[in-house]
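Fold this complex.
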Amino acid sequence: MTEDVKPVNFIRQIIDEDLSSGKHTEIVTRFPPEPNGYLHIGHAKSIWLNFGIKDDYQGKCTLRFDDTNPVREDAEFVTAIEEDVRWLGYKWTAIAHASDYFEQFHDYAVELIRKGLAYVDSLGADEIRNLRGTLSEPGADSPYRNRSIEENLALFSKMRAGEFANGEHVLRAKIDMSSPNINLRDPILYRIRHHPHQRTGDKWCIYPMYDFAHGQGDAIEGVTHSLCTLEFEDHRALYEWFIENLSVPSKPRQIEFSRLNLNYTVMSKRMLTQLVEQGYVHGWDDPRMPTISGLRRRGYTPASIRNFIASVGITKKSNIIEMGVLENCIREDLDPVAPRAMAVLRPLKVVIENYPEGESEILDVPNHPANPDMGTRKITLSREIYIDRDDYMDEPPKKFFRLGPGREVRLRYGFIVKCTDVIRDVTGQAIELRVQFDPETRGGNQPVGRKIKGIIHWVSANHCANAEIRLYDRLFSQANPLADKTKEFTDSINPESLEVLENCKVEMSLSTSSSDTRYQFERTGYFYPDKESSAGKLIFNRIVTLRDTWAKLAG
RNA sequence: UGGGGUGUAGCCAAGUGGCCUAAGGCACCAGGUUUUGAUCCUGGCAUCCGGAGGUUCGAAUCCUCCCACCCCAGCCA
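Structure:
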């Protein structure tokens, strides 16, 4: 699963065959997002596939914006998409836009009209739909289907000139209204949209449909393998029909693969947009979102995402991948390189009664348990410390190796302490622990016969920094938020997907840390400074927890 | 019930007629190491490949029929 293993999948097999048969000598792919939203991890699959092929076969890959529908698209999204692709670690051979080819597409449309293969239809949207037939019944010809070539040419020209209102006419291919494939029932090629385009401005008022733009765009760019998702399988016949009937410069081949789905989240751009616009999350880059920008802000690395895609593979089978696979990838990426630190999320004060008041000691501790090259850092230990509330229980169950009344535990890198007293508030809740330390056990020294299994993290009360820590959990409480068709997917949003802890205590070294370091807070998880974090106010996002056998045992 | 697809373990996924009494990863279970209940290490985890027939000396891989699931009736992509 490392990145130096070349991926094997059915698409690469096809490419290998095309190369060995001499059908192609250079491989050209493209990644074609529509700039109407942010990229999500499902797009990362397509990016990994297309750019990965380009890299491994020394081919070409264009980042091409599929901007054929000006009413939904926005320049804000194109900038964000470029940034996301770059961040994932890929370089495009060229950047292009379907709109770059509008003039050429228009000429192709005229070519079709001249060949008697396209006509201007003056039916309304409802009428067109009614004549299209159904899944099991054939459609019927439009009364305008047999207009003369001259009339079609004249009408289409007027459409372009802006002489008609939206919806008044449309250009259609003349194929077969009784085809069992609905895409072949005289599909619409051009529609009138009096709407400025984010790139071409007011130049056009007719815009090509996806089907009329995509394949021809591929052909113009010399794309050899046009990789798209399963829902376009039915469109392939139309894709090929255009390629066969138009004087395009090359003949690309469309190959479909299945989209990526993850459980406990949604992957449709429409739904992600809804989450953002209706305020269920705090923007496209909310760390709970499966967007590239959300994962980035959360602390995921580009390599972890690439490895994740590589590990799930490319097939034609519909799938829902378990979130645990993604989590495993980021842990795997971070464990060998993340510096360790101690951070107390829910502080509980502990006074070491036999530790001299006003004194302290400096401990030189390793930044990584298995990699001495990562060096050491100094932390201070003194009479008053904080430990995590989770590491103390009034009535510990068996197998709980941490603190409880009368119990012993080791302070990480420090000595063994024994809980001798518990101070409580009026409700009876423990608010402070009194402990005694054993000087014999300093520095990891374990006297014979003393077997202390529990080790807990801590920070010195007078030698720590305050921090806000944001704990993220799955966005939905249902594995498949779309399974129950009687409910809105937003009904299964996890109300505890974000927990903000404002009063965390972290070791001093974190207050001067780089904003681009991902840490492992020992025993709790991997954390990454949020973009809102500053020296005056530390904020960390939890990327993922550590594997937690105890949590599993405790239920 | 038209057309297009897919079915190998809880989730992914190799496998392209004999070396398959079916790789690998995640998850899970059992041990070991460990100053993170982390990491790491060891072992376990499909007599079976959606089902039923058939072809063959031999099938997850070929044929037939059946079943299940996904996609398609936007002037969206």
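The longest strand of chain A covers residues 498-507.
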